[in-house]
Each structure stands twice: as structure tokens, then as C-alpha cells.
Specification:
With 269 residues, the protein is of the alpha/beta class. The protein is built from 11 helices and 6 strands. A 6-stranded parallel beta sheet has the order 3-2-1-4-5-6, with helices on both faces.
């Protein structure tokens, strides 16, 4: 019976050790949520400690009950046989302890802000094309004819990027009216209200080479674009690039990643 208790204790310690190791691995990617995780660790250890103390206390109480029973003349000897062995940890106690450990060590889902920072490898400056990435439209001709529409699905990611990075948006346009439409669309979507992005950081040019020139002058940690030619031209100069394309593309360089959309790139973790 003592061997059975030791085995149960050993298994509980192993499970607790595994949970603790997984916690410290996850803490590297957490910030304020780590406080809750550490609190959970403390509570789990406390309950486990209480459980590990219980066999000794139960043994003392059992000896006391047995001595009392022996001293009582009217008690049948059969009652002593029905007493459970004191050195055995019951399955229900082990299950309760495991439930406590599991409850407080549930995997913590990272916030979008944490995912953005991790995906960008803590990059502090980002340049990004508008057409096909931030806007619904995919060509300067569409901007000229239809106007500009900000993709609602990318807005949350865009605002998170502005919280941690120096973000510049840029696009090739055909006329001044297209510039005004883009700025109005961004303003109506609330891009400028967060304080992380100002209108002066929305740049316009008349050629694709002009956009490449902007990027090289700004020297960002990341550039995001939907034009494979621009991505290829900048691969030698920019640390990381994201090629946004609905079609699966071949990897052109080690520092170039690809995704169907900006929001899917940050939602794939």
C-alpha cells in the first residue's frame, strides 16, 4: 500500500512539473497576462501541498480512532477491519488535485498585439502598400473610377501595428483626386484617430519605382506589398518582406514571407 501511495505521488509530481515547464515557455510571449498565470501556479502548488500533507494527518487520526475503538468494550472487532489503510491516496483526491492543476494551467491565448509583435520580430518600422493590402481596390485605375474603400477585416490589425511600429502607407496614384479619396477613406475608417498614424505618413507616387524608392529611403524592418516585382527588387535591401497575394506563390528569397492577406498573416499563429 505504501508503494501504491509513492507511485501516485510520483505521477502527480511529474504532471505538475510538466505543467510548470510549459508555463515558463509560454511566459516568454506574454506580458500582463503572466501575472494571472503565476497566481494560478501559486494556487495549484498550494492545493498540491495540502494534498501531499493529508496522508500523515489521516494516519494520525486513524491511529487515534483505532486506539479509542480498542478501549471501548462494546465495539465489535469487525469495525477495525473496515477501516481504510491510511497510507493510500484515494483516486478521488488525486483526481481533484489534477483538476486544480489543469484549471490553472490552461493555455493562455495571446492577444492580437502580442501576435503582431512576435510576427514582426519586434520590428519597429514598417512600410506597407495600400492597394490590395489595406484597400479593397487593387489598381490605381480602380481608385480613379470607384474611389477608395478600407477593408474592414484588416482594420484591427492595422491599428495594432500602429501601436508598436512606425508605420508608413504608400501607393501609386494617377491624379490628385485619387490621393484625396484614399485619405478620406482612411480617415473615415478611424485610422488617424488612434494617434499612431498621421496623414504625413501616407505617401503617394506616380510609378512603382517611386514606391520602391520610398521604401529604400525609409529603411524599414518590414515592407508589405502585393507586387511581386517590387518585392523582388527590395529583397536585397530590406530585412523582412511580406508578399500579400491571394494565389500561392513560390518563395523568392529567405527574407520574403507570403500570405493571402495581412490579417491572415497575423492570424495564422
Amino acid at each position: 500500500m505504501a508503494d501504491s501511495f509513492k507511485e501516485e505521488l510520483s505521477q502527480l509530481i511529474k504532471r505538475l512539473t510538466l505543467k510548470i515547464s510549459n508555463l515558463f515557455i509560454s511566459l516568454r510571449n506574454l506580458d500582463t497576462q503572466s501575472i494571472g498565470a503565476v497566481a494560478g501556479l501559486a494556487v495549484a502548488i498550494f492545493f498540491s501541498w495540502r494534498l501531499l500533507r493529508s496522508p500523515g494527518g489521516a494516519q494520525r487520526r486513524q491511529r487515534k480512532r483505532q486506539s479509542t475503538t480498542s478501549a471501548s468494550p462494546g465495539v465489535s472487532a469487525q469495525s477495525n477491519v473496515s477501516v481504510a489503510p491510511s497510507g493510500v491516496c484515494s483516486p478521488s483526491d488525486d483526481s481533484r488535485a489534477q483538476n486544480v492543476v489543469d484549471e490553472f494551467f490552461q493555455p493562455v491565448k495571446p492577444t492580437l498585439g502580442q501576435v503582431v509583435r512576435q510576427r514582426l520580430n519586434e520590428g519597429r518600422k514598417v512600410t506597407c502598400r495600400l492597394l490590395g493590402v489595406i484597400l479593397e481596390e487593387s489598381s490605381p485605375e480602380e481608385l480613379q473610377v470607384k474611389g477608395a474603400t478600407v477593408r474592414s477585416s484588416v482594420l484591427e490589425v492595422l491599428l495594432e501595428i500602429t501601436k508598436f511600429c512606425d508605420l508608413y502607407l504608400m501607393e501609386r496614384v494617377l491624379d490628385d483626386e485619387s490621393e484625396k479619396r484614399v485619405l478620406v477613406a482612411l480617415e473615415d475608417a478611424g485610422v488617424f484617430t488612434s494617434g499612431g498614424l498621421v496623414k504625413d505618413k501616407v505617401l503617394f507616387c506616380s510609378t512603382e519605382n517611386g514606391r520602391s524608392s520610398f521604401v529604400r529611403q525609409l529603411e524599414p524592418d518590414w515592407h508589405i506589398d502585393s507586387n511581386p516585382d517590387v518585392i523582388s527588387q527590395l529583397a536585397r535591401f530590406i530585412k523582412y518582406q511580406l508578399h500579400v497575394s491571394p494565389l500561392r506563390t513560390e518563395k523568392t528569397a529567405a527574407n520574403v514571407l507570403s500570405a493571402p492577406s495581412l490579417e491572415q498573416f497575423f492570424g495564422s499563429m
